[in-house]
Amino acid sequence: MKTLIVYFSLEGNTDYAAKRIAGNIGADTQRLISKKIYKSKGFAKFISGGRSAIKEETPELESGDIDLTGYDCVILGFPVWASNVAPPLRTFVKEHQTELQAKSLAAFACQGGSGAEKALAKLKGTIGIEAFAAEGIFIEPMRQQSEDTDAAIDAFCEEVKGL
Ligand SMILES: Cc1cc2nc3c(=O)[nH]c(=O)nc-3n(C[C@H](O)[C@H](O)[C@H](O)COP(=O)(O)O)c2cc1C
């Protein structure tokens, strides 16, 4: 099964998880770059990203058109912002909704504490599906560098391999 991991990461945690998953299951990766610049330092980052997440914005992407042809499975990865999906991933999902509905889909969210379940539910609603084939929730895997989180990422990989 050919798998593509499509993800957005502001501060590197989702990037860390995406790369660990890709290495484990042998998937390709595509990191989304937003044309709208989100602040990544201090309290300002919560204002800039939080407001955008609450308004459910769909910022334009710089990543160009992402060709999903040839992929059986797509894994979506994002940081939780204000208990919601980080907006650049929403843009990708909205632009590829019909194609995504025809794939085997999994998703993972990186968060500091809470809100991932709500965000994953919103993401399913945006795509128009009932469930992901596999779901993972990871606590800041890069910043916190915990063996438990790495083990949770690897457990998610085993689920994806079983699809
Ligand atoms: C704008 C913004 C809003 C956030 N909102 C939440 C939240 O609602 N719940 C939570 O647990 N963490 C929240 N966080 C923390 C991030 O989800 C967490 O640090 C995540 O691992 C960051 O992933 P990244 O490094 O790939 O950007 C927020 C971070 C930002 C920048």
Give a written overview of the molecule.
- With 163 residues, the protein is an alpha/beta fold.
- The protein has a single domain, classed as Flavodoxin domain (Rossmann fold), CATH 3.40.50.360.
- It has 7 helices and 6 strands; from the N terminus they run βαβαββααβαβαα.
- It has helices spanning 13-25, 44-54, 87-95, 97-101, 116-127, 141-144, 147-161; strands spanning 3-7, 28-31, 73-81, 84-85, 104-111, 134-139.
- Strands 1, 2, 3, 4, 5 and 6 form a 6-stranded mixed β-sheet that branches.
- Strand 5, helix 5 (116-127) and strand 6 form a beta-alpha-beta unit.
- The longest helix is centred in the C-terminal third of the chain and has 15 residues, at 147-161.
- The model has no long low-confidence stretch (mean pLDDT 96).
- The protein binds flavin mononucleotide (FMN).
- Flavin mononucleotide is lined by residues 9-15, 45-46, 49-50, 79-83, 110-115, 140.
Structural descriptors:
alpha/beta; 163 residues; 6-stranded mixed sheet; Rossmann fold; single chain; 6 strands; 7 helices; binds flavin mononucleotide; 42% helix
The strand count comes to: 6
- What's the helix-strand series? EHEHEEHHEHEHH
The parts where pLDDT drops under 50 for at least 5 residues are: none
**Taking all residues together, what is the mean pLDDT?**
96
In CATH terms, what is the fold-level topology?
Rossmann fold
Helix content: 40-55%
> How large, in whole angstroms, is the Cα Rg?
14 Å
Largest sheet geometry: 6 strands, mixed
